[in-house]
UniProtKB/TrEMBL annotation:
Source organism of this protein record: Saimiri boliviensis boliviensis (Bolivian squirrel monkey)
Keywords: ATP-binding, Disulfide bond, Glycoprotein, Golgi apparatus, Manganese, Metal-binding, Nucleotide-binding
Record gene name: FAM20B
Domain of life where this protein originates: Eukaryota
Organism placement in taxonomy: Eukaryota, Metazoa, Chordata, Craniata, Vertebrata
GO cellular component: Golgi apparatus
Name by which UniProt lists this protein: FAM20B glycosaminoglycan xylosylkinase
Cofactor names: Mn(2+)
Stored PANTHER family: DENTIN MATRIX PROTEIN 4 PROTEIN FAM20 (PTHR12450), GLYCOSAMINOGLYCAN XYLOSYLKINASE (PTHR12450:SF14)
């Protein structure tokens, strides 16, 4: 099923488009730097707006979300213009989500496994949603939708399975770098990035 949503914002809230640092090249035979450089995150951490503030953690949260919904096509994101990296990411394009439920594109998690940091609140929420809680919550939220079922059972199973993969990825990071390094407090100043 295809759909479209149009968003109108007042002129006082102009949006600025940003190239996603882990975007794909979409050119046959040409890899993006993050696809071959395991230390790519170190370079991102030295680049504005990812060198301070919450933007890098926002990118990592987005990677987790995109992985759960199977969206490997996040090449841009928006923010409010002239915010100096302080506002949230605005995700307007999720068109390639919930495609093949049996395909897990692990590279979507590259920001997570290359940077090996995640917000404590994100980590806690992901742990809360394991053991079928996420699938149950999604089913419940969509139960009364006019186009029910919005997602098929294979898609719901895939979301639950991908959640476990995210948890395993974070566990690998904590095993390598320690929980104090990987789990970042939500309001912690990030000038060290």
């Amino acid at each position: 099923m295809e759909g479209s949503v149009t968003l109108w914002l007042p002129d006082v809230w102009p949006l600025q488009k940003h190239r996603h640092p882990w975007g794909r090249t979409y050119r046959e035979g040409k890899l993006a730097r993050w696809e071959y450089d395991e230390s790519y995150c170190d370079a991102v951490k030295k680049t504005s707006p990812y060198d301070s503030g919450p933007r890098l953690l926002d990118i990592i949260d987005t990677a987790v979300f995109d992985y759960l919904i199977g969206n490997a096509d996040r090449h841009h994101y928006e923010s409010f213009q002239d915010d100096e990296g302080a506002s949230m990411l605005i995700l307007l394009d999720n068109a390639k989500s919930f495609g093949n439920p049996s395909l897990d594109e692990r590279s979507i998690l590259a920001p997570l496994y290359q940077c090996c940091i995640i917000r404590v609140s994100t980590w806690n929420r992901l742990n809360y949603l394991k053991n079928g809680v996420l699938k149950s919550a999604l089913k419940s939220a969509m139960a009364h939708d006019p186009i029910f079922p919005v997602l098929s059972d294979p898609h719901l199973d895939a979301v639950d399975q991908r959640l476990l993969s995210v948890l395993v990825t974070v566990k690998q990071c904590t095993d390598q770098f320690g929980m104090d390094t990987v789990l970042v407090e939500d309001r912690m100043p990030l000038s060290h990035l």
